[in-house]
Design brief:
Blueprint lengths: L6 E5 L4 E6 L8 E6 L5 E10 L4 E11 L4 E4 L10 E5 L3 E6 L6 E7 L11 E6 L6 E6 L3 E8 L7 E9 L5 E6 L5 E6 L3 E6 L6 E6 L6 E6 L6 E6 L5 E5 L8 E3 L6 E6 L6 E6 L3 E6 L21 E4 L4 E6 L6 E6 L2 E6 L1
Antiparallel strand pairs: 1-28, 2-3, 3-4, 4-5, 6-7, 7-8, 8-9, 10-11, 11-12, 12-13, 14-15, 15-16, 16-17, 18-19, 19-20, 20-21, 22-23, 23-24, 24-25, 26-27, 27-28
Length: 343
């Protein structure tokens, strides 16, 4: 019996930054990648792995204004919605991929500024996995906006602002939903991670404040245990693990990278595993121990100081995503290369 390949690579015509996996069970090896070209006209490609040929093929390509700060497919494993793709940059854009996967069309451009046709640049967004009609965006104008999408209509997808709030004192760099539809967290240039509840937006909870006020670039919830989040600091080699039951005190720090961390992702199938990627060319998978068994805020999970798996790429890794449909795979980007790795 032939040994299964452990890695597949795709070379794009330009440097890559944006990356994500499809959530459709019928397209487990469909990914989207976005260019990082320092000019207005950028590109996004839809690529699929031809398992028989053992190579990726670009099935669709479209222009994108400015580099996409984030790309994500609709979290729809039940296949109740069209195959939609969202991107952020100057605006939030929703795209539809045709049934055969060979054509991508722009469905709508969503502007959160009601008083102007212009919008402050968007740094990131998150698509709610419990209710895919909800998307939250973060912006350099200190705000987060929660959008309500109409996705199941026969006509084009549309969206309305559900709520908009000033989330931080400075730029907001990331937003992430917890399990469910109401709770989300944000991270920003003021060095804090804050938690919000859509049912009570007049209050927020500061989960963590970086002692030196170093900007926090990413925030991600544990996919199984919503007590835990991870965040990362600008120009820093570590990943900080937080417990919302013990605000402001990290329960662990993952420190094996030898250069600044650029991305992180929790496992979609385990509460204990997280992957990080950095400028040291390494993607590291960590086991943070028995986190799901923590029953008291006085008990902390055992944070292993060393990763359990390590992969070294041919260049600094700027993006890492863990596949949802088939969690045996993670995807990374460096230079103009996409690689998917069997873990």
């Amino acid at each position: 019996m032939a040994k299964k390949s452990e890695m597949f690579a795709y070379k794009a015509p330009w440097p890559l930054y944006g990356l994500n996996w499809s959530h459709k069970r019928r397209n487990p090896f469909r990914l989207a990648v976005g260019s990082f070209i320092e000019e207005y006209k950028n590109k996004v490609q839809i690529v699929e792995l031809d398992e028989r040929a053992g190579e990726f093929k670009c099935t669709s390509q479209f222009d994108h204004p400015y580099p996409a700060t984030k790309i994500a497919f609709i979290p729809d494993m039940a296949d109740k919605h069209p195959d939609l793709l969202a991107t952020t940059g100057d605006y939030l854009r929703i795209w539809k991929i045709s049934e055969e996967g060979t054509r991508t069309t722009l469905e709508c451009i969503l502007n959160n500024n009601k008083t102007s046709e212009f919008c402050a640049p968007l740094t990131s967004f998150d698509w709610n996995e419990t209710d895919p009609r909800i998307i939250g965006t973060s912006s350099i104008d200190t705000t987060c906006t929660i959008w309500d999408l109409q996705t199941q209509t026969a006509t084009k997808v549309t969206g309305d602002v559900k709520t908009q709030l000033i989330a931080h004192d400075q730029e907001v760099y990331d937003i992430a939903f917890a399990r469910g539809v109401n709770v989300f967290a944000s991270a920003g240039a003021d060095g804090s991670v804050r938690m919000f509840d859509l049912r009570s937006l007049e209050h927020s909870t500061i989960i963590y404040e970086e002692p030196s006020d170093i900007p926090l670039l990413r925030v991600a919830w544990n996919r199984f245990d919503s007590s835990y989040l991870a965040t990362m600091k600008m120009d820093d080699n570590s990943v900080v693990i937080l417990d919302i039951r013990v605000p402001c005190v990290p329960v662990g720090t993952l420190q094996s990278h030898e250069a600044p961390v650029n991305g992180l992702a929790w496992a979609p199938h385990s509460s204990c595993h997280i992957v990080s990627a950095a400028d040291d060319r390494k993607a590291l998978i960590w086991d943070i121990g028995q986190s799901v068994k923590v029953s008291s805020v006085k008990e902390y999970p055992k944070i292993n100081s060393e990763p359990i798996l390590s992969y070294e790429a041919a260049g600094p890794i700027n993006q890492v995503k863990w596949a949802t449909v088939d969690p045996d795979w993670i995807g990374i980007c460096f230079d103009n290369t996409l690689e998917i790795l069997r873990v």
